[in-house]
Specification:
mainly alpha, 4 helices
Length: 111
């Protein structure tokens, strides 16, 4: 199986994806880094962490990791809303990440 190699272009695209995803999810880079138990909230620390996922499983592994974080956030939101007697369903973003993961798993990276 051909695996893509990490490149500056992949890194830049990933940064843009993360920033857009966080904005859509109403979360911050700090929230994401805390969810991943990273020692710093700097983008470079986050990218280094996700690069390790990329090396071991490519873009699909990164997408899976982000889907896991989205599920944790959704669960936390549901718990908070249940305490307040309000039901909020935020599965839209998780569905989008699942679709991205499915789509990416069909791509053969030749870099």
């Amino acid at each position: 199986m051909n695996r893509a190699r990490w490149s500056k272009e992949i890194e830049e695209d990933l940064i843009l994806l993360i920033k857009d995803w966080l904005r859509q999810a109403g979360r911050t880079q700090s929230d994401l880094c805390q969810s991943l138990s990273l020692p710093s909230t700097r983008m470079s620390t986050l990218i280094d962490f996700l690069k390790k996922d990329f090396v071991s499983g490519g873009i699909p592994k990164i997408a899976t990791r982000l889907c896991e974080i989205e599920a944790i956030w959704e669960n936390d939101t549901a718990k908070k809303s249940n305490k307040n007697g309000v039901q909020i369903k935020t599965s839209g973003q998780l569905d989008l990440l699942d679709k991205i993961c499915d789509d990416l798993s069909k791509i053969k990276f030749n870099n």
